[in-house]
Amino acid sequence: FLEPTAPSVVIGARAVGPPAFPRYAMLGVEHLALGLDHLLFLLALVLVVFDPRVRRARPMRALALTVTGFTAGHAGTLSLAVLGGVTLPSAPVEACIALSIVFLAAELLRAPTHAVFRAPWLVAAAFGLLHGLGFAGALADLGLPPGDAPAALVAFHVGPEIAQLGFVALAVLALRALRRVEPSRRALAWSIGAVASVWVGLRLAPLLAGGLS
Predict the structure, then answer these.
(1) How far apart, in whole angstroms, are the C-alpha atoms of residue 133 and residue 173?
(2) Which of 13, 69, 109, 123 is the least buried, fewest Cβ under 10 Å from its Cβ?
């Protein structure tokens, strides 16, 4: 693993560089912060929890459960992929991640009567399993340092959670400012669905082209 602070490595010797935990935690933060599909999914979850058409006695508790469910889901599949070798081809996984965002956007535009609104934490956990495979693909590209693999794996779990909590906090503040503006909420749901639909097409195109050839 080469970087400015450790620009070389001797094969057969332990590389000199920063400890694995802070290094991989920062890589996890960067992966979530630059992963627009994961961020759009989180934004859609926040919209579901704070949908003004749904009366919740404790919306912040519902949000905490939802974020925890998403965390548990992607942490589980990330660990299985890295430690147990459970992997899937990245192209269909990325397409399904985009589809999960389209699904939530479509639910936001319908009457809030489905399980997505009654138990958003369960939906978040289920789709979190899928998103965890996307995290696993990124970690597979990076690789784990020999001897520090457990610390690096834990750090790559922690990093995205730091970025995730920061993003959710900003999203909640923004939505509270717009909570009485129904057209803005619907326009945001349409925009999320439109962007995710484009991603679905772009990610399915290579698969369809490969099948036809």
Answers:
(1) 30
(2) 13
Residues with Cβ within 8 Å of 77's Cβ and at least 6 positions away in sequence, in order, are 86, 128, 129, 130, 132, 133, 135, 136
Q: Which residues pair with 6 in a beta bridge?
A: 3
